[in-house]
## 1
Amino acid sequence: MRHSDAKRVALCGLLTALMLVLGLVERQFPLTTAIPGIKLGLANSVLLYAIYMLGVKETLILMLLKALMSWVIYTNLNAMLYSLAGGVLSVASMLLLYRVKGISAIGVSAVGAVFFNVGQIMMAVLMLRTPGLLFTYLPVLMVSGVITGVLTGVVARMVMQHLRVLNKQIK
Amino acid sequence: MPRKKDIWLILAVLLAALVIFLLAKQMPQKSLEGRTADVTMAPDAIEVLEHTEKPDVSALQQLSDSQTPAPAVTKDTVTAEPAKTVPAVQAVPAATARPVEAEDVRDVPTVSAEPAETTSETLAAPTVTPGAATAEPAETTPEVLDAPTVTPGAVTAEPVETTPEVQSTPTVTPGAETAEPEEAAATATPETAKLAAGPVMGPVLERSQEPVKGHVIIMVQGQQYGDPIPMDMDKIITVRQDAHTINRIHITRESVHMESATCENQDCVGQGMVTLDNYRSRILGAYIVCMPNGVTVEMVPVSEPEAGQ
């Protein structure tokens, strides 16, 4: 039992590091500079993996850690708040959906990505007090969220299929 | 591969996006009401790139003072304000030929004003509306012949209309109107006319007389930075939150863009320009957003009926 716990903690740490690294890598290859907030969101696939393979608690911890660490790394409080708002909404929506029968990781991922964007823009509107931004920007982010979400969902599925072995060992 | 429900889920999200998009299109046009400053702008925040565009009475005065005699007359006429008692002013009335009869100012090729003068004139006539320029070539010409310097006065005729005081000045002399156009044409070659009249009447009128087409609202960390900034000239607004958080916003008469920013992702610079033409179709609408620095720039175009005036 203890052995397994240690493994879980180690895995959580590993996944957190992975998310941060993926985030850093993504920054080097922005999809577009014309629209802020649009990114591939590979960290999303890590969270997806956590939801399916680790559990609710671990997923939430991972999400919080990622937001916190992004603050430490980028020394930008705004970035952390955006990340946090997006992360909470995203994880909540994914946790609600992943148990629903007939919805695969791809659908969950897409919705999660969309809600990450929604949370981000809501936080931005709250902080910047520009409500007009919400309506002009939200549709764009929703569409981009669907696209990137499907992509990361596919990645997550492929990863999970190959990591079932590891998962068995943990559980 | 995605299952059926995945597809439905995704379609639902896309539908929601569409609905919000359509809702956004339906939103009423924004107004500047209640958009007052939360934070006063730093005194050195505005950097004007082109000084000549903004008409400034005091600047005009100075310019006119420094001018050579001939131009000086013109300024007097130009300024056409009652206060000015310079002898040259006498020309003014004539110059201020009636708006009613006059056609578009730009049609006045006869004006023989020198280019140098014209710049000062442009400054001088800040309030002139394009339509106002009413002086007919014919009218103006006589003055030109009599007192070459006066011609600028004709140019300035527009101000007369627009500014109340000017109107009060004793205006049009009938004789002036009767003047022969041919003479004027002879005196001024098209080129010179353009030089003289161009800056003064044509482009300048368009520039300085046209109402501002929009305003720019800058929000910094949720607080409005200064009152809405009219898009009246080429200028750069510097938003300095601290030594390492600086955004420079470039405003022209037609557009707004982020000139530079200290944020790491440079998204706001990449978002390009908001112009009067593209803000409806642009992805971010009339906004430029610098999320890391917490700065948003919004262009609020003057609503249509106003703009049409």
## 2
Amino acid sequence: MTEVIQISEKSKDFLKKVEEISGEVITLCEQCGICTTSCPMAEDMDVSPSNIMRLVQIGDEGVLETKAIWFCASCFTCTVRCPRGIDLAKVTEALRQINLRKNTDYLDINRMDESEVEDLPTIALVSSMRKYTG
Amino acid sequence: MKKFPYYPGCTLKQAAKHFETSAIASAEAMDIELVEIQKWNCCGAVASLTADDMMHHVAPIRNLVRVQEMNEKGMVDNEYRLVVFCSMCFNVLKRSAKRVKEDADMLKTINDFMDTEEDYEGNVEVKHFLEILDEIGFDSLTRRVKKPLKGLKISAYYGCTLLRPRGIGIDDPEAPSIMERFIEALGGEVVDNPYKSLCCGSYHTVGGNKELVAERAYKIINGARDNGADMMITSCPLCAFNLDDRQELTKKIHPDFQHMPVLYFTQIMAMAMGMEDRAGLDGNHIDARPLLRERKLLEG
């Protein structure tokens, strides 16, 4: 049975938005899955990297609610391996940014134990703030 | 002494002081004087990856303007290679430098925005210190070694930002060799690790995911240990925190785990150059000194 997915105008707009912010042509993805097999975080993700790509292709905004986009640590392993030359790290960055630009932070450092924060090197604090807060 | 502009970055001035101390000593051993750039600012630690964001490139570019100024003031002699030791700073600064070099409109916008700064001309080359050593030649490094790291089994840990993406990283992202050539040049024994470029978990060490990082440390360190390594080296202060300091948590999760020293590459270089007192060996969480004494590489 063939399942036909109808892509609405709203979905097309979402795809366009992600392509604009990431600068990547997401429709190039042919779902080979090498990103997922390369991803060091895939086992902890609720949706795999190749699934993220498919969800964006069909304009499913539910991708913004996944934990996976926050698990991506921008290690660029998928980026150097994608046979279609897509920089997936830029795609997950765009998805995080769409959330963060609505003034919603993913991490609240004030809720962390003070002694734990003191033990962290500056590089850890700056990078997490950059990635998790708007 | 050849003078190079030098960008330390925040962590070399704080949690990784032993990285900076040993870096300056290592450079001196190669007749290089590191001239710290004036009024440098934080690079941002992670590269801004979105196409429409220019704001986060301002901070890295401002540091590159400082390099121009140093040349104009004669603090360095026509030297536009900016030396960086921290892998993350290196990646961020190089990405911003590359981006504005390839995009004249963006460079103009950033220059217009920084209206109290002189314009950035786009000529600074961001270099990791390992690249500088490679350019000088590892044979030259070997000739300067005073105390070869004989019998020390060392495993290189590259992590992410020193290698990826292509065009930014300093070596082949799938089959790097520069750190191994560095270890050999110092007289150490190279031990391979299948996880030498597997992400340590990076900033997931902040907040609720530190167990993920501790698990990563378990996998990466055991990858080196299973091949017989005594220690690992890195050039990233965040990897160092995750693989060195987080070993305590790894041990809690996995009681069978055996600790392993994780040093900055400059620490073993300072040692091999006979500058043990400047190797910052008291700065690591897992102390390497007992091991080094056992191998007769350190007295006392």
